[in-house]
Amino acid sequence: MLTLTPQQLEVVQRPLGERCFLEGKAGCGKTSTAVERLLYLMQIGVPAHQILIYVPQRTLAQPYRQALAVPGVMAGGAVTILTLGGLARRTIETFWPLVVEQAGFGQPDEWPVFLTLETAQYFMAKLVEPLLAQGFFASVNAHPNRLYSQILDNLNKAALVGFPHTEIAERLKSAWSGSPGQLSIYDDAQTCANLFRAFCLEHNLLDFSLQVEVFVRYLWQNPLVRETLQQQYRHLIADNIEEDAPVSHDILRQWLPCFESALLIYDHGGGYRVFLGADPLSAYSLKSACEVQVTFETSFVTNAPLQRLEQTLLWTFGEPPPPPVEEAEPPPLIPIFERFYPQMLEQVAAEVARCVQEDGIPPSQIVILAPYLSDALRFSLGDLLEKRQIPFRSHRPSRALREEAPIRCLLTLAALAYPEYLPPNMLHDFDVMAALLQAIEGLDAVRARLLASIVFRKNDGLPSLSSFEQIRADSQERLTYRIGERYERLRRWIEEARAAEPEELEIFFVRLFEEILAQPGYGFYRNERAAELTANLAESARKFRLAFRESMNVSLEERNGEYLRMVHEGLIAAQYLRSWQTEDEEAVLISPAYTFLLNNRAVEVQFWLDVGSSGWYERLFQPLTQPYVLSRRWQAGRQWTAEEEAQVAEQNLQRITLGLLRRCRSRIYVGYSEYSASGYEQRGELLRVLQDSLEGLLRRA
Fold it and tell me: For residues 185 and 238, is the Cβ–Cβ distance under 8 A?
């Protein structure tokens, strides 16, 4: 057990029969207390299978998983860890016969098929592509995959907030105060959402929105289902409830009186998932349903200078001024100001190296954060850190699958093994060069280009690779015979796969990884990131296969071809838990700020890049949706104006700066360049707030 304060210990050892609401800012030990409460319940004899850990996102349950992974901790079954989506899916699987006809599914004798984000995008694309050709969304300048994801997001909002999906367009239109042309876009989005929902009902397909809707509207209202759940789970720990959606809070409010014990945890200043439907005000209303209410106020993360910086920031945001300090201390906010963007990145990389090599800070305790993580920024920073021998990793959940170089390598090799799956014009010399560069260890870009230009051919329109032995002797010497041997082994493996009977793509990817790419001499050898991405791709292909019913009459070849085409066209990746479970890896993390906040962990040092950018706080414009209008807080018929936009920007700025600050133990570097990466001057509001805070710290000293 951790060393707990008396206040923490009191919460951990509270008697059964109570519902406790625990609140406080990030870093006050709320989750640590909840983990100890979980262990305490099992120590006093509560069977593990009667305990439910309820979180808004699977990654937020990581502290509980780590505690339960200790040998000998659990007794009496296993603790259940669920999100709203997980609870909905598990309940639908159990009680499907009760709801299949009531909910209007078209195949009552068939079991449901649960869609991932990827498979939902695929079926959405099949329905919407013909409409795009007819002129739908003609005035919208966005990649089709972004359109599909926003339509799905609208359906998710309707389910999570609790209104009929047929009202999406009306709600958006009633709040719009701009150009009348936008209204037809909302109508187009509504038509697409209706088509998708009808298709899912016809084929027993359940995307996330339909899972939630079926559970909330039908199963949770069924006395048999509710009684089964209430008897199965007798003790509840619900963490980060401020990041959950209103219908989730509705269920908790109705369920709370039935638990023998309950601990609800609320994070002050949270709500980072508002764009996904989170509602902190709805979460806070659960406080009145708990007879015990506790507030933690002391941070176990931030040091004294950072706490004074937090007070100064709050003063900048309009709170009462903090008291003066007796002794001057160097501010924990360290500026890195340069005229041009590349110079700022150079200084950031140099300072990261100094933190690691001179101050002895582990790389895993350093994060580099930006409002957005573009491929260019990811590559530039990675190159600068590599030159200084600093290990790093990056995480951006919204990246398309194809944007990862190891995945592009696997896709290109699959297209060479099964050339009939893709149109001939979808594979080019550059794709083959990039694949060989990833696949063969010791091959540099120049020789990869040379090799690809010689061996890549299209025979009768189908791509193929020629033998290394057919290359002229002088070119063989330039490439080296060692590279040639490795290439030839890879080429023969692809030819054997091409000659054999087609197999499921997930099997193909795993075999290619194990038999060739993960062997000595090849690019995935001892490459954990490549192994992780291969596993993600194989899982994605498997779930894509499972989304097709036999009644759809889709052959293996057609399905494989559809999957490769879909990924090549920029499918947005689903969330893979293994991609979040690397926080102990000794590497600097490069990440969007919100992604780091949703991982909910503290580090020693943070670097904030582009503090002059408005991307830190401005709402990202999405032409087909609007998260604040599609919320339970929005009054029907009220128009969204520039005033509301400014208020949201101010709230976002306060939320993100305080959230990051409370997850830092030592110091924060702020990187600013007078000109952005695009060459524009930057004078964002975050820059002003930080300048005011620094001046405030100096005045107080």
Answer: no
d(CA 370, CA 594): 9
* Residue 606 · residue 309 · CB < 8 Å: no
Cα separation values, 508 from 415, 475, 514, 526, 569, Å: 11, 32, 10, 20, 20
Q: Residue 369's beta-bridge partner residues?
A: 591, 608
CA angle 488, 491, 496 (to 5 degrees): 125
Q: Tokens 């060989």, residue? A: 436
pLDDT digit string, tens, across residues 239-259 = 999 999 999 999 999 999 999
The tens digit of pLDDT for each residue in 67-86 reads 998 877 766 679 999 999 99
Superfamily of chain region 333-397+582-700: P-loop containing nucleotide triphosphate hydrolases (3.40.50.300)
Q: Regarding the domain with residue range 6-82+234-296, which homologous superfamily does it belong to in the CATH classification? A: P-loop containing nucleotide triphosphate hydrolases (3.40.50.300)
Average the pLDDT over each of 192-201, 480-489, 526-535 and give the range with the smallest value: 526-535
Closest among 266, 257, 264, 262 to 236, alpha carbons compared: 262
Residues 6+ apart with CB under 8 A from 134: none
Query: How far is the C-alpha of 485 from the C-alpha of 443, rounded, in Å?
Result: 12
Beta carbons of 457 and 476 less than 8 angstroms apart? no
Residue 481 is which amino acid? Y
For the chain, the domains span 6-82+234-296, 111-208, 333-397+582-700, 401-571
| CA separation for the pair 322, 332 (Å, rounded) | 17
How is the chain split among helix, strand and coil, in percent rounded to 5? 55, 10, 35
Per the CB < 8 A criterion, the answer to whether 493 and 522 are in contact is: no
pLDDT recorded at residue 404:
85
pTM: 0.88
